[in-house]
Amino acid sequence: MPAMGICEWIAAGRAIAEGQLTRYAEKAHFTDEFEQSLREMTGAKHALAVTSGTGALIAALAAAGIGPGDEVLVPAYTWMATATAPVMVGAVPILVDINETLTIDPEDIERKITPYTRAIIPVHMGNAPCDMDAIMAIAKKHGLIVIEDACQSVGVTYKGRALGSIGHLGALSFNKMKNLNIGEGGAVLTSDDQYFARARSYHDLGAMIRGHEDRYNEPAFIGVNMKVNEIQSAMAQVQLRKVLPMLERQRRRRASLAPILARSSQFQVTPHNDAESAISLTVLAPTREAAIALEDRKGIWNRLRDNSKHIYTNWEPIFAKRTFHPKMNPWAWAKREITYTPDMCARTLDILERTCVVNLGLKYPTCVMRRVAKGLAV
């Protein structure tokens, strides 16, 4: 993630000094400027800043009209928010295996589609893009809505297109672990006017006023409050300028290390859905035991199997189908019985057991990391 520094501090100070802290204040401008920059970077027609990536997913689902009785396909490897977001609009998550790219498996998507499936949420995990060509083709074939979870991949591209701008809607996150870091924050992307109007209405209590003059013929409906303030947006604008240079450094480093690691007989470099612009670097060992042995080698961060609530077996509230009130439980409204078991996505668990993250070592000279890679590839 880009480091926080003096420029963010100055930007926040400017917002405070101007005294227009709410985005719809008379002379507020930082949020509008940030959303314009997001549109320019991603190519999406509309960008809506919200309070978190989770909020962006929920707002996108609400914008798409997903609700009770609907099923939403989500990968078994993602932060739990991807699965809980459908629950918050009254739908239920259906878990789909990943493949060796560490992203949702298009073949398993086809297997999991039912007459009640309404949407797919492909997740670009750790800067690794999903196979969006295949996913969009499946969605078109079955009349499904695609909401990209690009929270972990702000600024990354797939075949020249920004992640989050390829599906019908996209969600971004700006929390402290993401490519753009302002502590907490997010955004909804879409090029559909109606979806944008609905997302904007939902994020502002359903108010069709104050900057919402163009309603695209959408009636107001009850929403929540996900509005950001001008301090967040001022900081995000500074961070946004750092994202693409940072990702380019990662791309060059990955391009330098991956061919060396590919020579190894002990593991393979994880396949990628857009190898030419790849940023993430992980390796896949033949067995769990081989992956555990790799963890002791310099240059390896960790096995993905140890990744807490990114793994479906650790989603306790989902498995329990437990909501804050029993009468607000979407599984009770589902049109069929939905069950979750620890072994339901065994392929995902196997891949995560055998996958290790490689440290790109951006703080060190390339020659040093190439030497480390040669040591790993022995």
TrEMBL record:
Taxonomy, superkingdom: Bacteria
Keywords: Aminotransferase, Pyridoxal phosphate, Transferase
GO molecular function, one term: transaminase activity
Active site residues per record: K178 (proton acceptor)
GO biological process, one term: polysaccharide biosynthetic process
Pfam families: DegT_DnrJ_EryC1
In-chain residues carrying the UniProt-annotated modification N6-(pyridoxal phosphate)lysine: K178
Family that this chain belongs to: Belongs to the DegT/DnrJ/EryC1 family.
PANTHER family in alphabetical order: DTDP-4-AMINO-4,6-DIDEOXYGALACTOSE TRANSAMINASE (PTHR30244:SF34), TRANSAMINASE (PTHR30244)
Name under which the protein is recorded: Aminotransferase
Organism of origin: Hyphomonas hirschiana VP5
